[in-house]
């Protein structure tokens, strides 16, 4: 009499639940994502580039921090199986966009000692002073910030209103500086403006 063992049942692939951004457009530098718990999952792994995944976490949520304002980000999430009865799910994605800054004060609050690009809108921003060093100072009714770039071509009294993208940094942990302006042109004739 020959007795044969039954072949083990094939593992079932988990199905990841829908992921959503819970604070889309509300924060200038963070995005929070959440999803419904997946039955039989041992946890979840997340990625911000779709290639490199972090360690398995048990929480059904994730927050991206230290983001650039006015920028879209994508989160990839997959449910992790036990490797025996259940295998990992395919990744599910969700996107969110950070809020744009609307004043120079808000821009300065975003800055760190690492240069980053931020997008926002300014209203009646004016070039207040261009000293001999070539550094311009741009101000609105909330604050002022240096624009450190040689040959920037700005003149006192020029103004700008609209969407603007800048690279900016906190220098020496003291001074907030714009190092480049990507999509905005200050216009108008030269006029005397009280220096900062």
Commentary on this structure:
The structure is a single chain. This protein is mainly β and 196 residues long. It has 1 helix and 13 strands, in the order E-E-E-E-E-E-E-E-H-E-E-E-E-E. The strands form 4 sheets. Strands 9-10-11-13-12 form a 5-stranded mixed beta barrel. It starts with 11 loop residues before the first strand and ends in a 15-residue tail after the last strand. The model has no long low-confidence stretch (mean pLDDT 92).
Key phrases:
single chain; 196 residues; mainly beta; five-stranded mixed barrel; three-stranded antiparallel beta sheet; 1 helix
pLDDT averaged over residues = 92
Radius of gyration: 25 Å
Shape: rod-shaped
Strand order of the largest sheet: 9-10-11-13-12
Structural class: mainly beta
Order of helices and strands: EEEEEEEEHEEEEE
Number of DSSP strand runs: 13
Roughly how many Å apart are the termini?
98 Å
Poorly predicted ranges: none
Largest sheet: 5 strands, mixed, barrel
Helix content: under 10%
Estimate what percentage of residues fall within beta strands. Answer: 35-45%
> Count of helical segments?
1
Task: Please sum up the structure shown.
With 196 residues, the chain is mostly beta strands.
Write the layout of secondary structure elements.
Layout: E1 12-13, E2 19-21, E3 31-35, E4 43-47, E5 61-64, E6 72-80, E7 86-87, E8 92-97, H1 104-110, E9 116-129, E10 135-139, E11 144-148, E12 159-171, E13 175-181
């Amino acid at each position: 009499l020959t007795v044969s063992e039954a072949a083990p049942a094939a593992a079932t692939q988990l199905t990841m639940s829908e992921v959503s951004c819970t604070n889309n457009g509300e924060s200038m530098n963070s995005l929070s994502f959440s999803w419904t718990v997946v039955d039989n999952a041992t946890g979840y792994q997340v990625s911000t580039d779709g290639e490199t995944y972090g360690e398995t976490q048990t929480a059904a949520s994730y927050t991206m921090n230290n983001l650039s304002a006015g920028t879209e980000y994508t989160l990839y999430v997959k449910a992790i199986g036990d490797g025996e009865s259940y295998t990992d799910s395919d990744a599910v994605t969700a996107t969110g966009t950070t809020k744009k800054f609307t004043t120079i004060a808000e821009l300065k609050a975003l800055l760190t000692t690492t240069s980053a690009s931020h997008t926002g809108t300014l209203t009646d921003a004016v070039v207040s002073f261009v000293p001999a060093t070539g550094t311009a100072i741009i101000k609105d009714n909330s604050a002022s910030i240096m624009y450190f770039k040689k040959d920037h071509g700005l003149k006192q009294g020029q103004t700008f209103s609209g969407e603007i993208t800048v690279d900016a940094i906190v220098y020496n942990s003291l001074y907030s500086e714009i190092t480049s302006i990507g999509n905005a042109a200050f216009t108008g004739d030269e006029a005397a403006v009280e220096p900062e």
